[in-house]
Specification:
transmembrane transporter activity, ABC transporter involved in vitamin B12 uptake, BtuC, transmembrane helix, 14 helices, cell membrane, transport
Amino acid sequence: MPLPDSSTRHGYRAVVRRKRLLLGLLALALLCSLLLDLALGSVRLGPWEVVQALLSPDSVPPQARVVIWDIRLPVALMAVVVGAALSLAGAQMQTILNNPLASPFTLGISAAASFGAALGLAFGLRLLPVAAEYMLPLNAFVMAMLTALIIHALSLKRGVTAETIVLLGIALVFTFNALLALVQYFATEQAVAAVVFWTMGSLTKATWGKLAITTAVLVATLPLFLRRAWALTALRLGDDKAASFGVDVRRLRLHTLVLVSLLAAFPVAFVGTIGFIGLVGPHIARMLIGEDQRFFLPASMLAGAVILSLSSVVSKILIPGTIFPIGVVTSLIGIPFFISLILGSRRRAW
């Protein structure tokens, strides 16, 4: 096989430099959004005060230090981590199902996780025999995993198309929403209030402990995805082509769905239902970076983190003095994007 000439190598290096520059710009946008999120609230702080409080807590007044470190920083960082996790999960679902409309939210995995967590919130029901403090995330994971396995089993059937998978996901969303309504019907008034508030999605109850667990799940799953970056990129060429390169397509899909369930379940268990991040983030990354998973995965994470961080900012300024439910904000952003994707898919089909 002839070696690529110098002009080809130069062109490849230029493409790589451009992708790295775009990743750097996304990281810069995330940093700016994070600082803005920390500055906004009932007590307004200047950007320099925020930077001082972060870098040298003892150099700022005690009130500013408490506001930043004890109240705002866990919430702001939770927005970053949850956005990155949901966007990464959506990117991998779109990859393994070869479906631009796939995400944990649109395929019912988030709804299933919500139902599992609601069983714990309303009735104290544990799907696994674990300690009470781990009940919600593990309930959410069990239901998300069962739903992912159903989707996986159907995707293996002969003649099943991408449109069929989307329709199944819509059916699962309605099913689990109905079950969630049933839980609320039989629960006490206090439990119903907790479930309703939680299903709207809120970062306000984020703590350092919840942030540590969610971050640990993200950090543990990311290297597994990066190790399979070549195989996942090959999968975008089609199952037969990927298999000809030596990729075990069935095993790759199953492992990916397990990891996606983890990424979707823990954020839902801790901050409630937050929709469309897993749909919008990967599409923005794909438009900027392309399909090469070495760059697409970090770009998806950064895009999702930026979107949710900016949504946190918007939730604070929509109604002064009130923090709007962040799940409502992301849905208002995501629904027009979802409709445009559907219309675009129909135009391509025709």
